[in-house]
Amino acid sequence: MPTSAFLQSLGITRPTAILDAVQARQNIRHMAQKAAQANIRFRPHFKTHQSAEIGQWFQTEGVTTITVSSFSMAHYFVEHGWQDITVAFPVNVREMDAINRLASQIQLGVLVESLATIDALQRGIQHPVQVWLEIDTGYHRTGLVWDDGDRILSLVRHLDSVEHLEFTGILTHTGQTYYARSRAEIQYLYQETTGRMQSIQDRLQQAGFSCQISIGDTPSCAVAGSFAGIDEIRPGNFVFYDQMMYQIGACRPDQLALAVACPVVGVYPERGQIVVYGGAVHLSKEALVETSGRAVFGYLQEIENGRLGRIAYDAPVISLSQEHGIIDVPPAMERKVTVGDIVLISPVHSCLTANLYPFYLTLTGENISRIR
Amino acid sequence: MPTSAFLQSLGITRPTAILDAVQARQNIRHMAQKAAQANIRFRPHFKTHQSAEIGQWFQTEGVTTITVSSFSMAHYFVEHGWQDITVAFPVNVREMDAINRLASQIQLGVLVESLATIDALQRGIQHPVQVWLEIDTGYHRTGLVWDDGDRILSLVRHLDSVEHLEFTGILTHTGQTYYARSRAEIQYLYQETTGRMQSIQDRLQQAGFSCQISIGDTPSCAVAGSFAGIDEIRPGNFVFYDQMMYQIGACRPDQLALAVACPVVGVYPERGQIVVYGGAVHLSKEALVETSGRAVFGYLQEIENGRLGRIAYDAPVISLSQEHGIIDVPPAMERKVTVGDIVLISPVHSCLTANLYPFYLTLTGENISRIR
Lengths: 372, 372
Prior knowledge:
The structure is a homodimer.
Chain A: H1 3-9, E1 16-19, H2 21-37, E2 41-42, H3 52-60, E3 66-68, H4 71-79, E4 84-90, H5 96-105, E5 107-112, H6 115-124, E6 129-136, E7 144-145, H7 149-160, E8 165-172, H8 183-206, E9 212-215, H9 218-223, E10 232-233, H10 243-247, E11 258-268, E12 273-277, H11 280-283, E13 288-289, E14 295-296, E15 298-304, E16 307-320, E17 324-328, H12 331-334, E18 342-347, H13 350-354, E19 359-362, E20 367-369
């Protein structure tokens, strides 16, 4: 069945997040098996899907430990039965009540990187929490600079003296892999990160502290051959992947599991464009910059045999307003598209796109709810 | 009271949309008075605020006609008592049920620009609707090209033959004003648009059709001195304005009515940066490109005398992840900021930012709900 007819058969009338559940489950299984073979802890980041039902797919693969990026997200997953959660975001000390509520209910892990935060926790914390020291291994977003060993050791010593704060290990997000241009470059950055983390671990162990290592970015976890020296991985995006991940070599096109269905509202032969009901509030404004310098917000994609299929790289989304998306289409494609058709768009960044929807619709017509 | 203390006194612990209600109401009153003085219809676009309560502030100013950008948004405002609504988005023919339901309840206006859409309406429409022909006056997003008079006249003739479709006039969104670099350029584009719309109106009137003219962009409506020859205006963004509107000269800094409160989670003296809990899912990825070529996602702003105040253009948000925002800050400011403080960010595009929140918090601590 052609893509538009298939999507119409699902009852779609407005912009809708479409999930290839078969592929998402394969992505989950593949990463879970990779972690199991390496004999390390798999603590997937649930900020990408933020769905209790998709969480169950991880449980099926034996996952019991997860990562989230806010206390409210942690609260949602606790309500859905999760008992061991790391909030992989520097502690927001204004939410001390939420921290204590969670720490009283589950095994809670938090991220710390400054004396100011440790002091605030010391004043407010009432229950044991696992504390990870966040390390900046080169991304320069958050974390202690990896080669400032004196400061890192001093913070661990300080942590060790505070009741309820249980130093667990060092954690990093190697976000620089998202700017890589090849699998080889991702592999290089992964090795560099691992080396930097192990140098800290050595120093802390020499000072008498046992110290786990946690790494988190999807590109590293997708590309790394083994995880020697690592204790846990926290990838998130891999559950859906997206055009950004494909472009840097972190996934194959057939691993993409999320797309957005959009009704066509205008066809413009004189410009070689179509316009869809599907804008920045349906795709997000995240862009890929093509080698030509043009910013692209997604590409048309087909449904093939009831699964997400071919991606039309000759049909990019080149402009987004709040609710309109403008798509350049080649003449042959344009002649086939009419007002009232529904097209499918493969997004640039699945995490930000998913965040804009209250639910996912699977290709077999099931609604998969998300956090609201 | 300093900004952080003031925001803490409001009980803020997480990223929160902050509304200067006094300023938003002044913005509403100012635009309503401008329309009244010009003796034209004011049909504000509610896609910016999407709030029943803010809608009431318009009612106080005598507004009874509104614009929205989707049938679901129309449905929300019908539920809150609005009876005359134009859906200023090319008709999505897949939502015929929604169109008929709305058309049976209220005075509904829709946008048409193609024979395909008219044919679909002809097959499905069961109640009278006002039809606006959308005209492309140079923005090249949607609409009939303004100088293709033959095609426009032919579509109006066709429309005229279809039961329930009541041709009302021509409508345009002069989106090119958002790329203007001065008030003079906005004024020029407004005059150009008006001239183009009037040339169509003349032709249609010569052919025996009465034809109103509706224009819609906030920059034109904010800058235009009078509205000679125009029948209605549909600005939306002006209720809050934003950094983009300020940069192009469409508003003054003191007219900005929306900002985002974000807890500080990291301070990095070695980089001259702070990191806040406030990322792409709290601000949107809409960026301004500064003359240096740097993309900026917002600027720090102060609270002064309980109102939105000074904007720190030396403290830009230079990077956003899903939940993290990185802000460059000058040394003097950085020395004053600590983990646990709450800072305020003036967003680049208030419509997209507002869309990410379930409610607004006013500076007097009131919750103003939004569509969910």
